[in-house]
TrEMBL record:
The lineage of its organism: Eukaryota, Metazoa, Chordata, Craniata, Vertebrata. This is Opioid receptor, delta 1b. PROSITE patterns: G_PROTEIN_RECEP_F1_1, G_PROTEIN_RECEP_F1_2. It is found in: Cell membrane. The chain crosses the membrane at residues 49-77, 89-107, 127-147, 168-191, 219-242, 263-287, 299-325. GO terms for molecular function: G protein-coupled enkephalin receptor activity; neuropeptide binding. It holds the Pfam family 7tm_1. It is a multi-pass membrane protein. Residues 69-322 form the G-protein coupled receptors family 1 profile domain. GO terms for cellular component: neuron projection; plasma membrane.
Amino acid sequence: MALPPHSLGDWNDSVSITPLNVTFTEDPPRASPDINDTNRAAGGDATSLLIPVCITALYSLICAVGLLGNVLVMFGVVRYIKLKTATNIYIFNLALADALATSTLPFQSAKYLMGTWPFGEVLCKVVIAIDYYNMFTSIFTLTMMSVDRYIAVCHPVRALDFRTPAKAKLINVCIWILSSAVAVPVMIMAVTKVTPQGKTSCELRFPKPERYWDTVLKIGVFIFAFVVPVLVITICYGLMILRLKSVRLLSGSKEKDRNMRRITRMVLVVVAAFIVCWTPIHIFIIVRTMVDIDRKNLLVVASWHLCIALGYTNSSLNPVLYAFLDENFKRCFRDFCLPYRSRLEQSSFSRARNSTKEPLSVCAPATARRPSA
């Protein structure tokens, strides 16, 4: 879940390809070609190459980890019985949004290195739309995961009807439809433009007055894709904490109670990671909207790119969190990465499992039996 760069052009108000249409160039500062002084030119070249190279290296790492990790998460939810729960259906939705976001990073990296957008207007529209879809589907999914945990903890009887995989899938579809209310208009507004320097930029072209609609989009996204969802999440977890403190056993079973607390803790960590990764970019954009920032200051440029990279990092961080915090995901990841070892272990314990009539392996294929809710 990331807030990727959207200004694939120069540092001016008309060029922007980031969610929120930041009126801030995404291009790292480049050395002026008419500098005569050799030392200054060498220093300028070094500076102009440093940021694009660092961005490309970082994006390559995030893309590799994010794509592999999120695809593995989606595969696990689809493939294995134990992962077909309401919470994991939401995790699948989150992984899908993150995988799509990280898939745009090679295009972003190429743009940084080349200093222009060489992929045409169609891909310009697609990349911008994916970024907005990622931003909205991620926070909406995390909000629904928090509401889901609140119902499971505070209203366990009602949870039996509400917390089903079928209803979670329906909610996921609604989340994508709702996100389309922003992503589709933005995709329509996305265009390519040749700058006076002869380079191509990918930007959002607003109706007039452009400055007004630009500001409306930024503030609207900040409120509906950050402030309101974070407020709902905070309220849900505040009520859950009060409930968990007042009741020793939530479900009447120590095993079920321990599992419920574990899942609640995992969702809380994922939500907290999202907020930590996204807060800097939202603050940066709002400050930029209200205050005239020096766009050529190297510290400002570096801070901007760091904020963007932090948002992208969140998309690759979630699968790591699942692997460390959820035992079921950990086992399924291990079974996927080490299939021969997994088969050997299952074979060695098959007799004991049959004699004691224990349930199938947590990572048994979905065709083995019907999933539990």
